[in-house]
Specification:
heterodimer, A: alpha+beta, Ubiquitin-like (UB roll), 2 domains, 5-stranded mixed β-sheet, 6 helices, 5 strands, 14% strand, globular, B: 296 residues, Uridine Diphospho-n-acetylenolpyruvylglucosamine Reductase, domain 3, 5-stranded antiparallel β-sheet, 13 helices, 37% helix, binds flavin-adenine dinucleotide, binds FE2/S2 (inorganic) cluster
Chain lengths: 174, 296
């Protein structure tokens, strides 16, 4: 029957490997193998965004993604954006604007906002709402979240104006 | 989820030979968004899944051929379709329909082939492709065939596909000049819910009358359907409010909605009527706006 399969991939820039069951989801594997507790399963159906993980530059719902399929891929979680002492601009903006209450949805919100700002450096309210419509916040911190995305956009624009490339600006500056 | 093994063939031939078995629990998986939900709820408990991921480089192209027909590779993601300049140029109706389908993460992963093969009547692309006379190219051990969408979608979650066959291409014939259209989606529970009714409508005008009308309805019906009666009724008529009103009555009379959490059969029939009328009005108006999608 099903056998463990060893997958090798880059996790937040580091080469890693893990033996996974073929039927294990990416959320389960990241939590079990790497203590990536920012990746959370809530709805388990692709609706809420709490399990948002970036695979080869695309945000996916980790709850609907088989872990074996990230073999050879570049995987990023919110842990890879910044550290406690050195937050990424989007993380900083969420803190400054208080874009959360309980914080359960926050890693997913930050991952999604990060991808939005890479595609669209100056989104309108409508564009933010539309892009983030698949990220639910049970505390309904939506106004603050939208404000945080605008604040993050300003920070990123300031960084790119200062000569940073968009790809480096989005990460915590070390 | 129940334990299963996952095979990852590198070529189409290899995938087809892995699927060529009598075991009904062997299934292809593309984006997995539909299958994962079915496996999590134990509606589907496979022993073996054949992942099509590694075929992506060869089967995800989106292109126009020499005849101007649009080809959508089965492993193109819905997000690839949404962001494709080729598709936007071909018809903005597809592009805009993608923008209101579920969320970015689902579209990043869900594929065109999985979208069609699932046979779910609530999907947004099938009515549009049906109105555009699209055909599905299918490969199996025995060879290839091409099936028009109305014959491809045989019923509620059922298609003409044999378990050992794969969709290898989706072909949308070049649009006639002057065809304008819209996709109107009505959601009942929340703005980003699955549609309760979807209407794709296209019209082509000539000398002040409707030269051609194409109308397909989905979600309210057990499978997407072309309303050929409505189409022939409209042909040759002036696009006046009464004509659209009457066409909408005809549409409602011709569908048999299934009752579910999104509404009773009678309520859905009313919604079909309203949506068909509005879709026709918008399809006509889109001649100047170059296509569009409306979300009610
Ligand atoms: C939260 C959520 C919300 C959604 N909302 C909407 C919505 O509002 N509107 C909408 O239209 N859709 C919606 N979807 C559905 C989404 O469009 C489908 O799940 C998706 O298109 C299926 O594609 P997939 O590649 O993930 O399919 P998979 O899950 O991989 O496969 C689905 C089926 O197709 C078969 N299959 C896959 N590829 C092929 C192939 N090439 N040849 C033959 N058979 C194949 C599989 O065996 C399986 O039976 C939603 C999905 C989710 C998870
Ligand atoms: S837990 Fe994956 S989207 Fe909700
Ligand atoms: S902050 Fe509590 S769920 Fe969003």
């Amino acid at each position: 029957m099903a056998e463990l399969q060893t997958i090798r991939f880059r996790l937040n820039g580091r080469p890693v490997e893990l033996a996974v069951q073929p039927y294990e989801t990416l959320v389960e594997a990241l939590r079990r193998g790497f203590q990536m507790y920012s990746v959370r399963e809530s709805c388990g159906q692709g609706l809420c965004g709490c399990c948002t993980v970036n695979v080869d530059g695309r945000a996916v719902s980790g709850c609907l993604y088989l872990a074996v399929l990230v073999d050879g891929c570049d995987v990023q979680t919110v842990e890879g954006l910044g550290t406690l002492n050195q937050l990424s601009p989007v993380q900083e903006a969420f803190v400054e604007c208080e874009g959360f209450q309980c914080g359960f949805c926050t890693p997913g919100m930050i991952m999604m906002a990060t991808q939005l700002l890479q595609e669209n450096p100056d989104p309108t309210d409508e564009e933010i709402k539309h892009y983030m419509s698949g990220n639910l916040c049970r505390c309904a911190a939506y106004p603050e979240i939208i404000a945080a995305v605008h604040r993050a956009a300003e920070k990123l624009r300031a960084q790119t104006a200062a000569g940073n490339t968009p790809a480096t600006a989005i990460m915590a500056q070390r | 989820m129940n334990p299963f093994q996952l095979l990852q063939p590198e070529t189409l031939e290899e995938a087809l030979s892995l699927l060529n078995t009598d075991d009904p629990s062997v299934r292809p998986v593309a984006g997995g968004t539909a299958l994962m939900l079915m496996m999590k709820s134990k509606v589907f408990t496979p022993h073996t899944l054949v992942s099509l991921q590694r075929l992506k480089p060869s089967l995800s192209g989106i292109r126009l051929d020499d005849a101007g027909d649009l080809h959508l590779g089965p492993l193109a993601s819905l997000r690839d379709v949404e962001r494709s300049p080729v598709v936007a140029e071909f018809t903005p109706v597809i592009t805009q329909a993608m923008q209101t389908l579920s969320n970015v993460r689902v579209r990043n992963v869900a594929t065109v082939g999985g979208h069609l093969a699932h046979g779910d009547p609530h999907m947004d692309l099938p009515p549009i492709l049906m109105a555009l006379d699209a055909r599905v190219r299918i490969s199996g051990q025995a060879g290839e065939r091409e099936v028009a969408l109305p014959e491809f979608l045989t019923g509620y979650y059922t298609t003409v596909l044999n378990p050992s066959e794969l969709i290898t291409d989706v072909v949308v014939p070049a649009l006639p000049n002057g065809l304008s259209g819209t996709y109107l989606k009505y959601t009942a529970l929340s703005a980003d819910d699955w549609p309760m009714c979807g209407v794709a409508a296209f019209v082509r005008m000539q000398g002040g009358v409707v030269a051609e009308a194409r109308v397909a309805v989905s979600a309210a019906t057990e499978r997407p359907v072309r309303l050929t009666g409505v189409e022939s009724f409209l042909r040759g008529r002036r696009p006046a409010a009464e004509a659209f009103e009457e066409a909408a009555e005809l549409a409602a009379a011709g569908v048999h909605p299934l009752a579910d959490i999104r509404g009773s059969s009678g309520y859905k029939r009313e919604i079909v009527k309203v949506c068909v009328r509005r879709a026709l009005e918008q399809a006509l108006a889109a001649r100047t706006r170059n296509g569009g999608v409306a979300h009610e």
